[in-house]
Amino acid sequence: MNDKKRFGLIGRNISYSFSKKFFAEKFLALQLPNHTYDIFDLPELESLPELLKTKNLRGLNVTIPYKEKIIPYLDQLSDEAAAIGAVNTISITENRTVGYNTDAYGFEKTLFKHKKAHQNSALILGDGGAAKAVKHILQKHGIPFETVSRSGKLTFENLAANDVSNHLIIIQCTPVGTFPNVNEFVHFPFESLSTNHLVIDLIYNPPLTCFLKKAGQQSATVVNGSYMLEQQAEKAAEIWNIQKK
């Protein structure tokens, strides 16, 4: 019986991803030698249908810049993925693709691992697929938020000190500062941060972004995206029914 199962990650310029190592170690620990995980760096999403024909392909993770763009290519969405409007995990069974969003689960775990009672409103920096998952969780728990984007009412250019001091949870959802561009960071009034703030940057590589360094210099509590990434990956493994023989 052929029980070979293939999984992987799709995105653009994603050679830095932790996913291959994470799942290789998981497969080893669960004694699943016929399970493999590959990086599929797709310059264009139009090549996805051909990839989906790959023999024994059972699941995919999805990262920047395809979390929203991938939806029209899928047969079905989970209720949560449909509500969020972004997908980061795909289950493939009998040529049928179902999209899920485990980013929301990972962010929820991260937020409530660190959130204090006085931190009860948020600023979301960015408006892409990851930010959509963040909004979903904040709405779920009744935490008010405002979004900072390039074209919204609140932009990186007009973000003021009082906007920051009035929101004690800051969530950095843009890819700015991701390896290899480790010296970059979004425009932000860091001097308005304080010991009362929780600052979460969803980036995990590097572990300490310039954004988090600058936030830490203002004595804010800083958290990177590593725990969120691990939690969303574990949830993806659950969806794919990856378990010990």
Describe this structure in words.
- With 245 residues, this protein is α/β, with parallel strands linked by helices.
- Helix content is 29%, strand content 22%.
- It is built from 8 helices and 12 strands.
- It has helices at residues 19-29, 48-51, 79-84, 103-114, 129-140, 161-165, 210-216, 226-239, and strands at 5-11, 35-41, 57-62, 76-77, 89-93, 96-100, 122-125, 145-149, 154-155, 169-172, 198-201, 221-223.
- Strands 2-1-3-5-6-4 form a 6-stranded mixed β-sheet.
- Helix 5 (129-140) links the parallel strand 7 (122-125) and strand 8.
- Helix 4 packs across helix 5.
- The longest helix has 14 residues, at 226-239.
- The protein is elongated, with a radius of gyration of 19 Å.
- The two termini are 14 Å apart.
- The model has no long low-confidence stretch (mean pLDDT 95).
Give the uncertain stretches in residue-range form: none
Sum up the overall morphology in one term: elongated
**Number of distinct helices:** 8
Distance from N terminus to C terminus (CA atoms, Å) equals 14 Å
**Share of helical residues:** 25-40%
Helix-strand pattern: EHEHEEHEEHEHEEHEEHEH
Mean pLDDT: 95
Tell me the total number of β-strands: 12
- Largest sheet: spatial strand order: 2-1-3-5-6-4
Please indicate the percent range of residues in DSSP E strands (runs of 2 or more): 15-25%
Structural class: alpha/beta
**Biggest sheet architecture:** 6 strands, mixed
Q: Radius of gyration over alpha carbons?
A: 19 Å
